[in-house]
Structure to design on (234 residues):
């Protein structure tokens, strides 16, 4: 059976120059991620997981290697091209929520649609996304009027409003207490089940990673374990 791959990354290398010193954050990392999959990326500090997330999420490009996202070759795109693909294909959920504090929940969720030039049904789509995360009665509230869990729900609504190919969640429960963190994880997993959107969680927490179906482990810039039971990911 042929897999429907959303992410195909081969031999990713990322080198940063710090003065005259070169630091290799990724050293030939390769992964494949199937459509609708739920997985986590783990690794110790300095393992390359943040760099991997940035490249997979089109926030950065590799120094060398090949990367395709949802069938589009993106490794060598310009900044503007990357921004366009990122807005259409990727929904982000961050530990710190990253909401505009002076704007309503509805306006925050509309932002990806505004960036995409979407005019028709923009407000209705944002409202539907907020309803999907259980905040239909908080649409006019600003982030400062919401709890941490509610703010993260707004961020999740913003991530799904464009119907992206995948959601990337970077420590999505890191700023929440354990009870609210469990609620947010349950919400993300249910959205994956209901919408079929690929869910990638970057985390250092084994309890969070254990709720995903596959764990990719990075160490020293390479994929130490692809979570495929010993089978190569390429």
């Amino acid at each position: 059976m042929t897999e429907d791959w959303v992410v195909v990354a081969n031999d990713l290398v990322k080198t940063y120059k710090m003065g005259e010193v070169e630091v290799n954050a990724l050293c030939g990392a390769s992964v494949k991620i199937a459509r609708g999959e739920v997985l986590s990326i783990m690794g110790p500090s300095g393992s390359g997981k943040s760099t991997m997330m940035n490249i997979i999420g089109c926030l950065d490009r590799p120094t060398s290697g090949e990367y395709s996202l949802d069938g589009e070759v993106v490794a060598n795109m310009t900044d503007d091209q990357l921004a366009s693909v990122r807005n259409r294909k990727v929904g982000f959920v961050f530990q710190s929520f990253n909401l505009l504090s002076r704007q309503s929940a509805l306006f925050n969720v509309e932002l990806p649609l505004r960036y995409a030039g979407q005019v028709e049904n923009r407000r209705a789509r944002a409202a539907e996304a907020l309803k999907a995360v259980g905040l239909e009665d908080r649409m006019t509230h600003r982030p400062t009027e919401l709890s941490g869990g509610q703010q993260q729900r707004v961020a999740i609504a913003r991530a799904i409003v464009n119907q992206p190919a995948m959601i990337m969640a970077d420590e999505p429960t890191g700023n929440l207490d354990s009870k609210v963190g469990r609620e947010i994880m349950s919400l993300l997993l249910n959205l994956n089940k209901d919408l079929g959107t690929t869910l990638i969680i970057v985390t250092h927490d084994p309890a969070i990673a254990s709720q995903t179906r596959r764990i990719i482990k990075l160490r020293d810039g390479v994929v130490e374990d692809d979570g495929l039971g010993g089978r190569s990911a390429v």
Observations:
- Residues 94 and 229 are 29 Å apart (CA to CA).
